[in-house]
Amino acid sequence: MERQPPNTIRLSAESVLQEYQVTKEWIRSLNIGEPNATRYGKYDGFVRRLIEAQNKGLLNDFETQNINSILHTFYEIDSINFLRKAFDKKEIPGLSSAIQKLLHGPETYLDENENSNEARNIGFELSTAASILNAGFPIDIDSIYDIKTNVLNTEVYIECKRPQNMKRLIKRTNEAIVQLEKRLALSTDQNAIGIVMISLDKILNPSMFIREFKNDNEFTRFLSELTNQLASYLTHKLKQDWNPRILAVTSQIRVPVRLQDDGIRFGYGSFTRDLLFPKSSNADQYLFKYYREKFLMGWNRRFHEFPSIPTS
Asked: What gap in Å lies between CA 82 and CA 102, rounded to an integer?
């Protein structure tokens, strides 16, 4: 029996494009403009050219010349398809404005810098909110905090950061801790808690280099060791004596990979784990366990596989 990495999502050009046609109609229903006039219109056109090359028997040449663009384009379109599936037919204040900002920004990941990263920063916030919503929790994204949800009748505030380099990681994480401390001080819920969500993509793999591993276990060990080292580093750099109601700094990593066992697989691996807890952590309390099992554990490992990408 063919083995697959856990939570594998198998994609093809046809399936991604078909889903995106539905997503385009959803975007139009938000009355925020024409999606074809944004960076997503270029992704749409690229996938259509890939399918055309496939139909003409020219797929290998097309893929060899455009492998990084294929990975990038599939991920961008698959990500917004994921948002549509989570948010469609739901009344969420602030969603239309956020999606409108997401549609713009630099076309490619490599063209992004600190002055042009708003679109993908919002994309990270929306992806986090969508995962929370999919886990069965309500979300509020239309206020001064990034995300607010409610777990077992307790308010949970989440601040999302997507730093561009290691220096910014310390600054942005400290900012999130301070922001959450202020939110918690103002909350009428005396039991409210906070969580920091950090995207490590730009820090750990700024060029989106395709990493090669023998198998999924080796890939998982690599990510675990990397985040362990980062957690040790952050322990000595971050603001000391957090409010213990900020339960964790949690990281999310997206890595383009090639796995060699059972036939070569290309795609994106996503990995989510807790990095740090405050010294006087309440992280073993039932509320946090419930939140982690319902949300983080369900989101922990995903592999978006692109089976048409060349194997040599």
From this structure: 13
Please write the tens of the pLDDT for every residue from 72-81.
Answer: 888 899 899 9
Q: How far is CA 229 from CA 168, 226, 275, 297, in A?
A: 17, 5, 10, 21
176 belongs to a structural domain: yes
Tell me how far apart the alpha carbons of residues 197 and 161 are, in angstroms, rounded to a whole number: 6
Query: Tell me: the pLDDT tens digits for 166-199?
Result: 889 999 999 999 999 999 999 999 889 899 999 9
Q: How far apart are the first and last CA of the chain?
A: 23
Q: What is the DSSP string of 37-86?
A: GSHHHHHHHHHHHHHHHHHTT-HHHHHHHHHHHHHHHHHHHHHHHHHHHH
Separation in Å, CA 128 to CA 22, 32, 54, 226, 258? 22, 22, 34, 22, 25
Within a domain: 311: no
For residue 165, is it within any domain?
yes
Is the pTM here over 0.85, yes or no? yes
Contacts 24+ apart (CB under 8 A), 33-36: 33/100, 33/103, 35/103
Amino acid at 221: R
Tell me the helices (H) and strands (E) count for the chain, helix number first: 10, 8
Residue 20 lies in a domain: yes
Q: How many domains does the chain fold into? A: 1
Q: How many CB atoms lie within 10 A of CB 277?
A: 18
pLDDT per residue over 144-173, tens digit each? Answer: 889 999 988 889 999 999 998 888 999 999
Residue 155 is part of which domain span?
8-305
